[in-house]
Amino acid sequence: MISPLLRRLLLAGVCGGASVSLAHAQADPIKFGKINELDLTAQNFAADSAASAVVLCDFGRSRFEYNDGQFRVVFERVTRIKILKKSGYDEATVQVPLYHKATNEEKLTSLRGFTYNLVNGQVVKEKLNSDAIFREESTPNITIRKFTMPNVRVGSVIEYSYLVVSPFTFNFQDWTFQREIPVRWSEYRAAIPEYFDYKMLMQGYEPLEVQERNEATTQYTISWSSKMEYGERTSGGSTVVTPRVTNHRWAMKAVPAMREEPYMTTTNDYISKIDFELAGIKWPDEPYKAVANSWEKIDTELLNDEQFGSQLNKGGFLKEQLTPLLAQTTDPAARVAAIHDLVRRSVKHNGNNAVYASSTVHRAYDQKTGNAADINLLLVAALRQAGFQANPVLLSTRNHGRMETGVPLLSRFNYVLAHVALPEGKEMLLDATEELAPCGMLPHRCLNGVGRLVLPKTGASRWIELKTNDRLLSYRQISLTVDEKGGFSGKVHQEHAGYLALSQREKLRKLGEKKYVEELAASHEGWNIPAYTFKERDALHRPLTLEYEFASAGGDAPAGTIYLNPLRDFGADKNPFLHEGRRFPVDFGTALDEIVMVNITLPAGYELEETPKPMTMELPESGGRFTYAIQPGTGIIQIVSRMNLSRPVYSAEEYAYLREFFARMMAKQSERLVLKKKV
């Protein structure tokens, strides 16, 4: 049993000098400097010909050392990559993030690297030089050490190895098995002594080739010099402790490249990896001490922070602006909308997401610009000043990653919204960063699972769903007149509502009306748009409307047969789901509705040769519906196409149905109408 004196030394961190020996050593999957010459030939990579590069082996391990009075985590890595194309040259530049706080910092040591090339049948290797190693400051607590391998060309094999020594036991190295290029073998080992309790969070869709765990012992030799202890001088000495150590080993084989696909949040949500979080520490003869954060602690920390909680009640400077707004109506929802409009118009979003205000909400108002926290904390403060029960909501945006409610980490958040309680138990989520979004519409980037509503009462904060009643809506009504040469002209009444209205208003503001219409005409072969009118540009709660005339010339002479494909220009242009399989959800963020109505006036003496069959199809579990109907008449044809996706998210198991749904819809919309001249 460890002595009380040694236990105090461990806790106080006054020990100096250590050595460690690990049991149950496992053969490494890679040895630095010993490459297989076959990896320098092209024929060995036929299966990976579509890839820009291939990770041949990525091997890492973490272990603990005791030195200078504290435990350190030592992380070793050896990586070997084959370059297959010029687009794979980026793999030759490596970034290693290093954390630092106060006087403590993680250090990169023992960096080595070689580039191997096959020249005239001989292996030539070139060493990584120190002048190719750089240092960059990424954030206030993160430094990036970056290096670039020399003389990289198509066919090269690059190899590098390094150690990271960290005094931060809470920052145990995570491991990512999957990359944007294929990985032949990825292996991670971790030797963790019994003093440290880590949560291990595995994610991804690729199977583990190896998952092993065994128990052994580790020896730490701890020495100390004489010092005063409780009024008495203790003599110097040393002792050996042999705690249990758990040796973990994980490996994946033939890991496919993680590809970006349509309608996904971020690849980081689905890539195969393992994360570590320090949950607690158990010293010998001491009770377990939980060190993991809790959401309640995070709530308290935020509410006491000068750049978060302290800003929520600093809306007094807006009294003069709020008084006339509140005098115009007594309706709570209308008052909220007026306050939202005031903040939205007063402070422009600088494009930065943030949890904390950059300084104060008053300063952001004066400067008329700020990050997301500046604007939305100002919105909360203004609502409170007006007498509303308003509070902040923390969240992670779609490109930042999904929210893990079981892992209390402040770093999981990168954005803040406003929440306001209304009469009769109603509530609203508000964001004032989008100049062209109406009150109550959340930016699409915020539609990402759940957010945390931070309430002033201890323990009252809760998770709320980040959902919206707004949809992505498109409605087109087309009147089309066809002439005997196959040319046509017509009028279009087009409405974009919900999230489509927001994106189109942004495009219209960026391009201006003339260029917007020029791009519209250019996207349809042979089109000319001689007249157009935009309506409801500034009525943000209403659909953006565009009415325009268009024309397209036909042939030089009357045709006996005219082929029309009217939905080609007004329906979906391509199936977004090209791959046969998908392992992660399809996340549109919001429901979708698309309606196209076409009335076609035929040239005199022509008739529809054959009427296409109508179609109705539905996704399982009422997930969506497509209908197509055509009604021929005397000299007139009417087509109605409607597509509805009723849910914002579809599971990977539903992907095959969704892909087939789009394929069949587009096949139907691409069917041609054949007009024949009557004999």
UniProtKB/TrEMBL annotation:
Span of domain DUF3857: 75-225
Record keywords, A-Z: Signal
Pfam families with a match to the protein in the record: DUF3857, Transglut_core
Leader sequence residues: 1-25
Residue ranges annotated for the Transglutaminase-like domain, each copy included: 327-402
Domain of life from the UniProt record: Bacteria
Stated name of the protein: DUF3857 domain-containing protein
Natural source organism: Hymenobacter perfusus
